[in-house]
Amino acid sequence: MSGLRRLWGASSKFQMGLVILGVLILLAVLHPFFSWIIGGKQDPTALSTYDRWEVPNAYHWLGTDRYGRDIMAMTLDGLATSLEIAAIAGLLSTFIGVIVAFVAGYKGGWLDAVLRTTTDMFLVVPSFPLLLTLSAYVRNVSLLTVAMMLAAFSWPFAARPIRSYVLSLRSRPYVELARVTNLNDFQIIFQELVPNLLPYIGVGFANAALGAVFALVGLEVIGLGPANIIDLGLLINYAISWGAMSLGAWPIFVAPVIFLSLVFISVNLLNIGLEEIYNPRLRGTAGA
User: Fold this and answer.
1) What are phi and psi of 70, to 5 degrees?
2) For all residues of the chain together, what is the average pLDDT?
3) What are the Cα distances from residue 126, in Å, to 58, 83, 131, 214?
4) Which of 74, 118, 188, 237 shows the smallest number of beta carbons within 10 Å?
5) How many Å apart are CA 226 and CA 270, to the nearest integer?
6) Tens of pLDDT along 93-138?
7) What is the DSSP string of 205-253?
8) For the whole model, what pTM was predicted?
9) Structural domains for the chain
């Protein structure tokens, strides 16, 4: 908590990003309650007896869709799903990337060469076409399966920079002192190296989570996303396929776009804030 308080007071951009992201997470966690209040039921995907294509009003803040479902309730449900996939995919990809980066950077030698080559191979592989192929053949998938598919192609983006930082830290005096005191490799990595790289691991997680959100949106927009879950990308797909804008039902397109923009803005503000805090030269330039 003391570390978070120090970060909070060190950068206004970090504060702004954390507040926006906190509000989005709160809406996602409490979305069943809000959906019940706004939409009149807890399942926003169920067909409703409301009138179709209602305009925004006191009962339906963003109106209804072609099936009479409340758009605000659907949007909050989609936000919760998108953030859940982002969290799972971000954690999985960051975990894999951190393990690979620390083992390769600290051990060096042939193990570093093998892991570095594997990472480079994944970096140059066009991931989106592979995701398209997997999505086309795997239709009935769970939330965890989708997150694992997204994480499988995003972990190298965290592993590459973290490995570089580990290479620069492994020859520091305090690491040499830890070796002299007979600490094993596991203890040195998690007691000496990981605490010094937590901000970079956090940035890697944020980027991986953000990439997962927009990768899923890309799949949903072209109609190849999972069919049994609703997320922000699926709402955009609905708006495009139904011609909602031409019917005046703009909220079903605008609402998910606004939430996606807020997710993007908040994560990037957090990253910029961390860069300003832990990069003295950037902090001096930015005046933070």
Assistant:
1) -70, 125
2) 81
3) 47, 24, 9, 16
4) 118
5) 30
6) 999 999 999 888 888 888 888 988 888 888 877 777 777 776 666 6
7) HHHHHHHHHHHHHHHHHTT-S-TT---HHHHHHHHHHHTTTTTT-THHH
8) 0.84
9) 73-286 (1.10.3720.10)
